[in-house]
Design a protein that fits this description.
- This protein is an all-alpha fold and 166 residues long.
- It folds into two domains: 42 residues; 102 residues, no CATH class.
- It contains nine helices and no strands.
- It is globular and about 60 Å long.
Length: 166
């Protein structure tokens, strides 16, 4: 996490310098906007990290291994895909949950399926998608993307099941 933090810090400093050089106090307005975003998102971040940190301690490791671990095979990939598709919210919620499960013994294939299902299926976002894009478009998109979380999980298990990721 050190390298990504350094990269984001450098980018933030560059943006602040650019905003400062524009004059007119844009750098101050940018910092105020960042503070407002932080105030809005901080509670969600705290709760997501609590979930990620505690999930590995409240769900027994043997249960995780059985249902979503390396021994679970296709069942784990199906569970990961469905759980990802049903996980609400953005990456602030989904990624800490996936990280917590991965550290608890979930297989790489299951977590790839989880993240791909979260990204492509997004069942909790269907009402707004149907409202804005129409039911026909939404149905076509779901049919076209249905296989990808499962396929991604299978590929990850096949090629990377021996890879240490945590």
């Amino acid at each position: 996490m050190l390298i990504p933090t350094i990269i984001m810090g450098v980018i933030a400093i560059i943006f602040l310098i650019i905003a400062y050089q524009k004059g007119g106090g844009e750098h101050i307005l940018g910092l105020k906007a960042a503070g407002n975003i932080l105030i809005q998102i901080l509670p969600l971040l705290i709760f997501a990290f609590i979930i990620a940190g505690t999930i590995q301690y409240i769900i027994p490791n043997d249960l995780i291994s059985e249902w979503v671990g390396a021994e679970s095979g296709l069942r784990g990939i199906f569970i990961g895909s469905a759980a990802g598709g049903l996980t609400p919210g953005g990456p602030i919620i989904a990624m800490p949950i996936a990280a917590g499960l991965l550290q608890s013994g979930a297989s790489i294939g299951t977590m790839v399926a989880f993240m791909t299902g979260w990204s492509l299926w997004a069942f909790t976002r269907l009402p707004i998608e149907i409202g804005l894009m129409g039911w026909r478009f939404t149905a076509i998109r779901l049919v076209c993307t249905f296989i990808f979380p499962l396929l991604a999980g299978i590929i990850a298990n096949f090629f990377f099941s021996k890879t240490e990721v945590v």
